[in-house]
Amino acid sequence: MTLKQENLLHLSQRLSGVSESTTLQLNAAVQSMKAKGLDVINLTAGEPDFWVPDVAKEAAIKAVQANCSKYTPVTGILELREAITQKTNQQQSWIGQTHPWKASDVVVTNGAKQALFNSFLALLDSGDEVLIPSPYWLSYPDMVKIAGGIPKLIKSSYSQGFKINPSQLKSALGPKVKILILNSPNNPTGAMYTRDEFAALADILIHAPQAQGVWVVSDEIYDRITLDNTPFCSFLEAAPELAHRTITVNGMSKGAAMTGWRIGWSVAPKIVTEGMAILQGQSTSGINALAQWASLAALGLPDQYFLSQAKNFTKRRNLMLENLKKASKLELSVPDGAFYFFIGVQAYLKSGEDSISFCKNLLEKAKVAVVPGVVFGEPKFVRVSFSTDEKTILEGCQRIVQYLESLKTWG
Ligand SMILES: Cc1ncc(COP(=O)(O)O)c(C=O)c1O
Questions:
Q1: pLDDT grade, residue 32 (50/70/90)?
Q2: pLDDT band, very low/low/confident/very high, at 242 (cuts 50, 70, 90)
Q3: Which atom of ligand 1 is nearest the CA belonging to 252?
């Protein structure tokens, strides 16, 4: 939904052309169908279906009992910021060994979303351009617009595994470019950049004359959800030379299934961290104290905890792949991370049809909800989430395949 013209008369210019999050909207539509008793299979989920780890729940209860519920420092409790630097220093090993991140480089935020928003507000002036590889997580362009920036898409196609290459990055550069957003593992495609691929992009940012003032915002929120043991590479692991102009964003939402606890963070050089702390101090202040203590406990979980969830997601991905393959004309690329398939449905679209009407028909006729790719910048694709149990995945895939087969006869 974009705001109506007449309502915009009362609202700031900043809101024109900015839309409501379609995935949240879709989820609401599905919930209301379910409430009416309709048998809908929901494959739109953007959150893990696992429960929050017990240690996090226990830590939150203890924090309540110990009255740890006053205002916290704007940038977060020290213990949590230290745990975040420990994690980041491990994932960015050269930096960790030579000039490690300190607690003062961290801002704990209201989900990764606020860390991204803080980054754009802190760095962008009106008219600055932000390079966004497409397909992209749907909130990036709107956040950039609210912050006064101009989203500039770099298209990465299905045939290139939905990853941009150095020559595309080089030709997208220009005098107004201020930020490049990277997101690996990626929502919606599940694509992951290898260390070499990141290093090749970094090479452009280090050497191209027009890239000298460009910052990287690396959204690493799915770092814990890598499939088939595909190794996760933080951008600064591949490009430590760019530490002075990179903001690493991460949080508890996906890996620890703590979406509703709203804990994210940024790790960034002093100058931007100070700017973001001022922004946050005058807007939300420090984040919910209890959720911070709970997050500290969850960050201390052994790797094994996260690996077993990733293993579970791998099993679900394989189940979905095996079943969706039965619709032979789908363009299926196998995700390496996160919990989505991003599927080309072009062969099944009638002339003039896009993924929005495709998804509406699929919901109406087969009672399966998936997200239209148009919201991620690809009108002929759909995003199908496997963050649900195996029975639901199987039933959903069977309905999708049956629906696609029936399309031939409907003509
Ligand atoms: C790529 C990406 N970045 C950031 C976020 C926001 O995460 P949070 O819920 O921690 O704000 C999401 C959530 O869906 C996401 O998919």
A1: confident
A2: very high
A3: 10
Query: For the segment 379-400, what is each residue's pLDDT rounded down to a tens digit?
Result: 999 999 999 999 999 999 999 9
Residues with CB under 6 A from ligand 1: 46, 111-113, 137, 183, 187, 219, 221, 251, 253, 259, 264
The atom of ligand 1 lying closest to the CA of 110 is 11
Question: Amino acid identity, residue 105?
Answer: D
Q: Are residues 246 and 382 in the same domain?
A: no
Q: Compute the distance from residue 118 Cα to the ligand 1 centre, in Å.
A: 14
Q: Which residue has the tokens 């490049």?
A: 180
Each residue's pLDDT tens digit, 143-202: 999 999 999 999 999 999 999 999 999 999 999 999 999 999 999 999 999 999 999 999
Cα of 338 from ligand 1 centre, angstroms: 11
- Taking the mean position of all CA atoms in its chain, how far away is CA 81? 21
- CA pair distance 221, 234, nearest whole angstrom: 11
Per DSSP bridges, beta strands 150-155 and 177-183 are unpaired
* CA proximity to 390, closest of 310, 312, 324: 312
Cα of 328 from ligand 1 centre, angstroms: 32
Pair 267, 326 in one domain? no
The reply to whether 95 falls in a domain is: yes
Which one-letter amino acid corresponds to residue 244? H
Is it true that the peptide bond before 185 is cis, omega within 30 degrees of 0? yes
Q: Which residues partner with 342 through β-bridges?
A: 383
8-state DSSP, 258: -
CATH of residue 375's domain is 3.90.1150.10
State in Å: Cα 380 to ligand 1 middle: 23
Position 2 confidence tier, pLDDT thresholds 50, 70, 90: low
Residue 132 DSSP SS3: strand
Domain stop point among 258, 281, 301:
301
- Length, in residues, of the chain: 411
> Within a domain: residue 59?
no
From the CA of 253, give the closest atom in ligand 1: 10
